[in-house]
Amino acid sequence: MSDVTVERIITSGAIGAGRPGLPPDGIFLENNVWLVGDHERVLVIDAAHDARAIAAAVGDREPLGILLTHGHEDHVNAALDTAALLDTHLYLHPADLFIWRETHGDAVPDFELADGAAFQVAGVELITRHTPGHTPGSVCFVAPALGTVFSGDTLFNGGPGATRWEYSSFPQIIDSIQTSLFSLPPTTIVQPGHGEFTEIAAEQPALAAWLARGQ
Asked: Count of domains in the chain?
């Protein structure tokens, strides 16, 4: 395995402009975009807000694909532009296509993600785990050799992602976390779609409190 790095690019922007119940200009969010690779090749995880910033971070490296953790606007709104700038492919779980279309209409990602799909970069494997609950097609990407999971909006420092939409499910996200994430080694680093990292061991003791709190 070569010298693999995990890089965080924090991008920001407004989403939901003009939608009922939101401010006219939308709401402002910061997102984590993750780059996994070495000095030659890289995988991009999520494409939020700023295609040029993501492309600049990739630099001269060969982009092996853009892996999308789910279809929400703030994680995919720069996806088409980023893919065009980098001349690379987009991957999304098909259960989130209906959400993706709210942002991108009839344009579709290049490939469908499936549970267990594996991606290689610089001798490191990233394994897709389907973790529905936040959205039907939410996924996480586990990198065992790095002791890391890229959790999107499934698990954060402090608890599970939001389940306030009609297509979301609090019981389902809890089941996804328990079966797909809490089965990872306790020292696994959790790199989420927003905010700071955590570890599996730091989140496991809070399960009972999450259940008591509900969504």
From this structure: 1
User: Which structural domain range is residue 161 located in?
Assistant: 5-213
Report phi then psi at 174, rounded to 5: -65, -45
pLDDT digits (tens, 9 = 90+) for 9-58: 999 999 988 777 778 888 999 999 999 999 999 999 999 999 999 999 99
* 76 phi and psi angles, rounded to 5 deg: -125, 0
- Cα 1 from Cα 145, distance rounded (Å): 9
Cα torsion for 179, 156, 194, 165, to the nearest 10°? 70
This model's pTM is above 0.90:
yes
Gap between the Cα atoms of 152 and 88, Å rounded: 21
CATH number at residue 148: 3.60.15.10
